[in-house]
Amino acid sequence: MSHITYLEASVVGLIQGVTELFPVSSLGHNVLIPALIGGSWATDLNVAASESPYLAFIVGLHVATAIALLVYFWRDWLRIIRGFFASLKHFAAPEPGTRRWVPEDTDQKLAWMIILATIPVGLVGLRFEHEFRVLFGKPVRAAIFLVINGLILFAGEKFRTRKSLEADAELAAEAEVPEQHAAPRSRTSGATVPGATVPGATVADAAVAGAAAGGGTVAGAAAPGATAHPVAMHASGQRAARQMEAARAVQADTRLTKMGYVQALVIGSAQILALLAGISRDGVVMVGGMFRGLSRQDAARFSFLLSTPVILAAGVLKIPDLTGHLGSGIRGQVIVGSILSGVAAYLSVRFLMKYFQTRTLTPFAIYCVVAGLGSIIYLTLK
Fold first, then answer.
1. What pTM value is reported for the model?
2. Of the candidates 251, 233, 227, which has an alpha carbon nearest to the alpha carbon of residue 79?
3. Most-buried pick from 111, 245, 257, 369 (CB within 10 A)?
4. Is the pLDDT of residue 239 over 70?
């Protein structure tokens, strides 16, 4: 049986953590890199081989990536999960006079949109994951699909809808001028989201208000006659920033829920393409979201939220491989690779959430086309 070295585990772990979230296909890179390096790497890290320990290794990396996403979006997932259970209570005991069950707030709607959008790829993955991996998990085929992935990203930017462009312009305008939106309220709790703005209030006002709600102050907002301690000012400023970030997340989710369940199902179905090595899950979901009128920033957020349950479920379902004979002798390597993968994934999602506020998919498209074509030429000639 082939083995996985700690060097291989470290390199693949880092690459997995980055490429799972960057729109460049982690599975495509997991297939291509060992083949391009050759030697023992091609033997040890062959995803299409039967009884390969590489499969058990990838399981650990996927779980680590999903955990990184959960850590980054933990406040959002708490809201979404609470919304899901609140919707179940309403379903079990509907309010008097209501004829049908309808999720009643943003968190409840988003929870069911994510569930519906995940069903297609879940069903197809359960039934055809092995066939897809064996048939398309070949290096040259992965390179071809990497080129196709680049063309999809190009098309996503080239043929963006007017609605999507307008959504981008609206977000850019909101970032440049004082925010004058009413504070979002959670119908589940009935409380105003901390840090949200009120008519006529600026972002700075909201931060001050959010800090005050938490019992703190921010720089320049100390009570008359009081001297603000630098440490306290810094802590209050960080608290206000987190509250503002939470408020903006609620606003983003409100925009997402406006597209409805059918569109969420259509966008989520695009994840099926990611079963092909070389096609990026986040890339095709982002393109699908922009085609359906989402801003690039909201499309990225929706893609990351959709990725979390899919990646986590895929890893959990394959854990028996990791605990069984396929994981024998490589569990140390799995731990090392998973730690590196999780850290890389967390840093990647932090970077990308800021990147897509102002930047495009085009650089990733160029990379996929160049890397794919280069791999095809190299693998064909060697």
1. 0.81
2. 251
3. 111
4. yes
